Amino acid sequence: MTMSMPLFRLVVVGIVLGGRASMLFAQPTDAQAVRAEFDQLRAEFDEVRRAYGDRLSALEARLLVLEGGTPPAVPLSPPPTDVPAAAPVPSGAAGAGGPQGALPVYGNVNALSKIFNPDLAVIGNFVGAAGKNSVNPSPALEMREAETSLQAIVDPYARADFFFAFGPEGADFEEGYITFPTLPGGLLAKVGKMRGAFGKTNLLHPHALPWTDRPLVTENLLGGEEGLAASGFSVARLLPNRWMFLELTGEVFGSDSALFNSPGQRELSYVGHLRGYQDVSESSNLDLGTSFAFGHNGSDGSSVTQLIGVDATFRYRPLRRTTGRRLLARTELMWSRRSEAGDATAFGVYASADYQFARRWFAGLRYDYAERAVETQTLDTGMSWLVTFWPSEFSQVRGQYRRTRYAEAETAHEVLFQFLFSIGAHGAHAF
Amino acid sequence: MPSDRVRRATAGVLAASCLALWPAVRPAAQSTVRVVATTEDLAALAREAGGDRIEVEAIARGYQDPHFVEPKPSFVLRLLNAQLLLVVGRDLEAGWLPSLVQQSRNRRIQPGAEGYLDASLTARIIEVPAAPVTRAMGDVHALGNPHYWLDPANGRSTVRAIASRLSELRPKDAAYFTQRAADFERRLAAAEQRWDATIAPYKGLEIVTYHRSWSSFAQRFGLDVVGYVEPKPGIPPSPAHTRDLIQLMVQHQVRLVIVEPYFDLRTPNAIARETGASVLVLPPSVGGVKEATDYIRLFDYNIAALTAAITRAGGHGHDHDHDHDRRH
User: Fold this and answer.
1) Residue A182: its chain B contacts at CB < 8 A?
2) Distance from the CA of B36 to the CA of which of B29, B50, B234, B240 falls in 20 to 30 A?
């Protein structure tokens, strides 16, 4: 309907123009006045044409944007095949509440038929390792995973995100959840399988880490690569106050994670996280958090594991330079108590810094210290040095030298390198 | 261990009650419309339409690259109580805005809601790719050039769109918003005459820019962008491309390289040394320099700086001093 009005005006202008042209021949003496009128009509015609074009482009853009803010990467184009996009309504079927005009042909290869498809992205994570490590050896060359993400808006009330990882051990359903961003009471709720909000690195997918591996404390106390990821609910609420950003997250999971795993998975596990954030200046900020996790594991599910974590992040990024020096310094401390090992307590920490020293270059450092969760009095420590190169926003090449001193009195020296590459429209990461 | 469970349940209920009682949103004065704009340009245009009946905050600073903004939680707090969110659109904010809007818990400003206004939908957008795009072309904007606010005609359409949306949100002030938009259009039209007169002698001048931020500006004011310091959008300068660009500039006798304030000046300066051209740092946004305090002053500043640089380039031949330009 929006387009029909300019079209109508176009036709009217055309008819009037035709009429005026015949008058031009009929009254040649009044040529000047007719010319003026003709020019005015031409201007009107151009105006209608411009308005029509503008409206058409605005409508096209609106159509794209209505797909949830992340329109497809290619502009709309005519269907590339000869498959008809519409079929005529059979005679007699039109009218009386029946269909009118052309019916859509479902399954046709038409860009419009794919417009509601979710954003699709694949991230490749290739890791190579050289050196000696008999405690936790890494393959010399490994396509560690291809993470596939499917993300879209479900309806006016929710969006959904799915992440699948394909690796040497097969396909893994990493995460899949629905998010309700506009619940009453300032709540942000998620339901599905997701990574638990315990600390900072547990929430990150491998490609978003500033290292090729996870810190030792994650390996020893938080369930390793899989970490704390399970099916459940998550509810986060902002606590508005005059001093800082404060967000409280409460989560309830089943016992199907690498950290909490009980037979039959009848027991529930709980995670709580309080995050405080404050801008120090326009270029720097401080992000503090404390986390709690409680769940069951052991052969009969009767053992209880409790974890407490504290995390602190300092970021510096000058706003005035795209290519500016950027710093991210982070530490996470964790305490674990496991009843299955006679209430064994263990402590772990890592501290890391990642510094951007040129437009596409980063240098990093990480210190690891982690006791083992069930083997009391065992301690692993490590140190890593990293260099990362970003050819573009969509690929990274990383080198890491890692020295690990294991409780077995072995010191491993390794060089790891990583290629990360992303295709498609991977959604923006949380800060 | 029933006592433990009871204790835990009591603690849970107490904590939940405390949370429920904590106010979700801060009470705010009802007399004004709370507007958040993703850039200072949109904030400035909103002020033109909204005057003292709105409160405006911008997310990206004018001296910041709007493609790369960190989605900081402090921005979530700004969005929490917003009644109107103004976005540039065309994927300019795709890397950072969606997560902020999601975390804002504010249903009024979700895409598609009444409080979400994408200014690009009423603007004239250029450089919309006609053929499929791939990332081999760099970080190309598949929906057209998002730096459209640098054409005053788009500033005009944006103010109209904002006034109209504000009128829907606050019908009793509709006449006020409409009158302010009309007043802005009058001032802009007068300013455009001034700018056109100033820049008229340089119509068709060939220039080089760092990024494709100046396409709309160049098209509107009759400048001809013949090359870019970036080999492809978002890809840093490479030696081979720089060499080609220098050749092109010598062939076309290009005397001016325009650079956005947030890019590194080393390569543009090296190009200028080789070609005898001048490097001019121009702010593409309100707030990019302290003189550019509103939309019209942004153009005032840029057109004055541009014509001064062209005059200097013409007046001193190939040998000039870049230091003055660097100070901006």
Assistant:
1) 105-107, 110
2) B234
Longest dimension (CA), chain B: 90
CA Rg, chain B, in Å? 24
Mean pLDDT of B243-253: 95
Between the alpha carbon of residue B124 and those of residues A247, B39, B158, the distances in Å are 41, 18, 10
Record the pTM: 0.80
Do residues B153 and B225 share a domain?
no
CA distance B271 to B279: 9
Domain boundary among B161, B193, B225: B193
Domain count, chain B: 2
What ipTM was reported for this prediction?
0.84
Residues B42 and B134 in one domain: yes
Q: Is residue B176 part of a domain?
A: yes
The tokens describing A243, both together, are 């001093």
pLDDT at B27 over 70: no
Minimal-distance CA residue of chain A relative to B12: A250
**A188 → closest Cβ in B103, B122, B139:** B103
Q: How many residues does chain A have?
A: 431
Q: What are the φ/ψ torsions at residue A63 (nearest 5 degrees)?
A: -60, -40
Please answer whether residues A212 and A418 qualify as being in contact, where contact means their C-beta atoms are separated by less than 8 angstroms: yes
Whether residue B204 is found in the same domain as residue B151: no
Helix (H, G, I), strand (E, B) or coil at A169: coil
Highest mean pLDDT among A15-24, B221-230, B306-315: B221-230
Q: How far is it, in rounded angstroms, from Cα B155 to Cα B46?
A: 10
Sign of CA dihedral B116, A182, B106, A202: negative
The answer to whether residue B15 is domain-embedded is no
Point out which residues pair with A229 in neighbouring strands.
Answer: A195
Task: Specify the 3-state DSSP secondary structure of B233.
Answer: coil
Q: Return the residue of B nearest to A392 by Cα.
A: B235
Helix, strand, or coil (residue A199): coil
Residues B28-64: pLDDT tens digits? 556 899 999 999 999 999 999 999 999 999 999 999 9
Note whether B196 contacts A: Cβ–Cβ < 8 A: no
Mean pLDDT by 10 residues, chain A (431 residues): 45 44 44 69 69 65 51 38 45 45 52 77 96 92 95 91 94 95 90 96 93 95 89 94 94 89 82 97 96 87 90 94 85 93 90 93 97 87 97 93 93 96 79 74
In a domain, B13, yes or no: no
Write out the residue range of the structural domain in which residue B184 sits. Answer: 33-193
Report CB contact under 8 Å: B143, A75. Answer: yes
> What are B302's two structure tokens?
């840029």
Assess contact for B310 and B304: CB atoms under 8 A: no
Sign, CA dihedral B249-B250-B251-B253, equals positive
Q: In angstroms, how far is the first alpha carbon of chain B from the final one?
A: 71
CATH number of the domain where residue B104 is located = 3.40.50.1980
Looking at residue B115, its amino acid is G
A-chain CB neighbours of B110 within 8 Å are 156, 181-182
Determine, yes or no, domain membership for B6. no
Q: What is the CA radius of gyration of chain A?
A: 31
Report which of B271, B256, B261 is spatially closest to residue B328, judged by C-alpha positions. Answer: B261
User: Mean pLDDT over all residues of chain B?
Assistant: 89
Structural fold of domain A119-424:
Porin (2.40.160)
Residues composing chain B = 328
Residues 131-150 of B with CB under 8 A from A: 132-133, 135, 138-139, 142-143
Instruction: Say which residues have a Cβ less than 8 Å from residue A197's Cβ, sequence separation at least 6.
Output: A203, A234, A236, A249, A251, A271, A273, A291
Task: State whether A245 and B98 contact (CB < 8 Å).
Answer: no
